[in-house]
Amino acid sequence: MVELARRVGLSKSPVQARLKRLEETGVITGYRAILDPIRMGQAHVAFVEVRLDDTREAALQAFNRAVLTVPEIEQCHMIASRFDYLLKVRTADIQDYRRVLAERISALPHVAQTSTYVAMEAVKEVP
After folding, report:
1. Is the same domain home to 22 and 60?
2. CA of 106: how far to CAs of 8, 17, 82, 88, 96, in Å?
3. pLDDT value at 127 more than 90
4. What is the pLDDT of residue 70?
5. Is residue 13 very low, low, confident or very high in pLDDT (cuts 50, 70, 90)?
6. What residues pair up with 86 in beta bridges, in sequence order?
7. Are residues 58 and 92 in the same domain?
8. Which of 35, 85, 102, 126 is most buried, taking the most CB atoms under 10 A from its CB?
9. Which carries the bigger pLDDT value, residue 16 or residue 50?
């Protein structure tokens, strides 16, 4: 708190009041610990394009619910493109990724096709 107050040029009390107001209005939705995935043995990052065989609402909802059960999927975004979803998948290594792709991602509801892009380096990554 003191560091934040110093950075914005205010004393501790006004900063606390602003934070409380931001929390009460829902601008700040929570706080979290930021873990280092590399130190946790999860250094391999792949981005996966997913094309579904059905894009009606029921199929999209089934896919969305199933994605939430796969811990290796760090992010999932519905995309307006030639494919339907873009996943960010974090695993220990390429062998682990291969297993997750074969056993988990390809088995998600309505998956027709996937394409994988392996990240070589994170130039900018917001935790």
Report:
1. no
2. 48, 49, 18, 14, 14
3. no
4. 98
5. confident
6. 49, 77
7. yes
8. 85
9. 50
Question: 17 in a domain, yes or no?
Answer: yes
Give 48-107 pLDDT, tens digit per residue.
Answer: 999 999 999 999 999 999 999 999 999 999 999 999 999 999 999 999 999 999 999 999
- How far apart CA 92 and CA 95 sit, in angstroms, is 8
Contacts of 19 (CB under 8 A, 6+ apart): 28
Other beta carbons within 10 Å of 73 = 20
- Structural contact between residues 110 and 63, judged by C-beta atoms closer than 8 angstroms: yes
Do the domain assignments include residue 6? Answer: yes
Domain co-membership, 25 together with 51: no
Question: Six-digit token pair at 25?
Answer: 């209005």
Cα–Cα distances in angstroms (integers) from residue 59 to residues 97, 101, 102, 103, 108, in the given order: 25, 20, 20, 20, 11
